[in-house]
Write a structure and sequence with these properties.
Low-confidence stretches: none
Largest sheet: none
Structural class: mainly alpha
Number of strands: 0
Helix content: 55-70%
Radius of gyration: 7 Å
Distance between the termini: 12 Å
Shape: flat
Strand content: under 5%
Amino acid sequence: MSEDSVVHTVTPSSNYIYPDLH
């Protein structure tokens, strides 16, 4: 999960890529 968190932090654009995470 850490990886996902990092990606989400590095690129806010991932918000639409990982709506589940956000």
